[in-house]
UniProtKB/TrEMBL annotation:
Keywords recorded for this protein, A-Z: Pyridoxal phosphate
InterPro entries the record matches: DegT/StrS_aminotransferase, PyrdxlP-dep_Trfase, PyrdxlP-dep_Trfase_major
One example GO MF annotation: transaminase activity
Positions of modified residues (N6-(pyridoxal phosphate)lysine): K192
Keyword Nucleotide-binding: no
Identification of the protein by name: dTDP-4-amino-4,6-dideoxygalactose transaminase
Residues the record marks as active site: K192
Transmembrane segments: none
Family affiliation: Belongs to the DegT/DnrJ/EryC1 family.
GO terms under biological process: polysaccharide biosynthetic process
Species annotation: Marinomonas pollencensis
Length: 397
């Protein structure tokens, strides 16, 4: 029996230049982003400039987490208590959580067979709910048809916030994920595409939205010390009516992130090589369905999802258990019981008037998910996927 014995939670080391830069910051004692010498740009300032450049957008704010960025995005967009916000039912808990944190009410939209948001359900709920905001989670790196998404946003006048926690480095028809909507949010938490333990980014092309986001993030009246930011006139009124929701990035984290942004594209290629190795082996099984991804999508294969459409709930549990016994860690999104990082929409019971979403439950009932850490070699990926294929075949009967 084949067994795999590396940890699915093991990340790569922080690049050496990042470690050296972090030591430099610690030696200086100036860890706070606004603790700069005259005319000096802090590591956090430079990180914002570099990530704005990477995304090709004018404004970027680095902050304490991806979930914080999502919350501040809601606030900066002008969401008021009780407002409705369209959002994927298939996503992770910080997404509806950030909507709730702004006092708004999530309107959950179904998932489609390709694991993207269901565009027909989106259109129907955009029409029926009266929502003016849409938080689109590019969940597990799957980009929905962005042309149609934008057409729906235009038609219903939706303010679009993209949750790019799993699509940092991805694009649709060559246009970067996070540059379609009004605001985009990214995470630098350990299990995402860059790793500072905790951290996040908010980007936008709207000056006023960025001015508010900067004030919310805890800039006090030091907003002029932001460089990937609008001119100081933009803050003239905003500085009086925007509360401080303290959630800044610090120079230590920024120092370890900067070299990771510089090598992000190369890392994405390494993920994709691993992804294609796994995908090719899984496709050899007639039982396993890996949905074909659209030509227009350039994704980052930092995780893989596949379905076992003919399997019952007990077979799904059996696959997860037996794979686990052989060192292969799979997550089942269909479990009624929330576990680890994974929770099905109906476990977010704080959402008022929670709809029943039978289509979503049906898709999630046979959906499995696996992380692909870069510490795995391509040979590891062959072994892992062979184990999955073998286990699926054992559980088949
Ligand atoms: C991780 C994650 C977030 C939130 O990021 P944190 O930095 O952990 O707050 C938001 N959305 C999705 C889909 C995520 O996976």
């Amino acid at each position: 029996m084949k067994v795999f014995n590396k940890a699915f939670t093991q990340q790569e080391a922080i690049p050496e230049e990042g470690i050296l830069a972090a030591i430099e910051v610690m030696r200086s004692g100036r860890l706070h982003r606004y603790n700069t010498l005259p005319d000096e740009k802090s590591e956090t300032d430079l990180l914002e400039i570099e990530f704005a450049e990477y995304q090709g957008v004018p404004y970027c704010l680095a902050c304490s987490s991806g979930g914080y960025a999502l919350h501040v995005a809601m606030r900066a967009a002008g969401v008021q208590a009780g407002d409705k916000v369209l959002c994927n039912a298939f996503t992770l808990a910080p997404v509806p959580g950030s909507i709730h944190n702004s006092g708004a009410v999530p309107v959950l939209v179904d998932v489609a067979d390709d694991y993207c948001i269901d565009l027909d359900d989106l259109e129907a709920k955009a029409a029926s709910s009266g929502a003016q905001y849409f938080m689109l989670s590019h969940m597990r790196g799957h980009l929905a048809d962005m042309d149609r998404i934008m057409a729906i946003c235009d038609q219903y006048g939706l303010f679009l916030i993209e949750d790019c926690a799993h699509t940092m480095g991805a694009s649709w028809k060559g246009k970067k994920s996070g540059t379609f909507g009004d605001v985009a949010c990214f995470s630098a938490q350990t299990y995402k595409h860059v790793n500072s333990g905790e951290g996040g980014f908010l980007t936008t092309r709207h000056g006023e939205v960025m001015a508010r986001a900067i004030m919310y993030s805890g800039s006090y009246m030091l907003y002029e010390r932001h460089f990937a930011a609008p001119a100081k006139e933009t803050f003239q009124q905003i500085r009086f009516d925007t509360p401080n929701y303290s959630g800044r990035m610090d120079n230590l984290r920024a120092a370890i992130l900067r070299p990771q942004i510089a090598r992000l594209d190369a890392q994405c290629e390494r993920w994709n090589r691993r992804y294609s190795v796994i995908e090719a082996v899984l496709r050899q099984s007639a039982t396993i369905v890996v949905p074909k991804r659209p030509e227009a999508e350039t994704f980052v294969g930092s995780s893989i999802q596949f379905s076992l459409p003919s399997f019952s709930a007990s077979q799904m549990l059996d696959v997860v258990k037996r794979c686990g016994e052989r060192g292969v860690v799979l997550k089942w999104f269909g479990d009624a019981e929330p576990k680890d990082y994974t929770s099905r929409y109906d476990s977010w019971r704080y959402i008022e008037d929670m709809p029943k979403l039978p289509n979503t439950e049906q898709v999630l009932a046979t959906l499995l998910d696996m992380r692909i850490p870069l510490t795995f070699s391509e040979e590891d990926c062959v072994l892992i996927s062979e184990i999955i294929v073998a286990v699926v075949s054992e559980c088949e009967s």
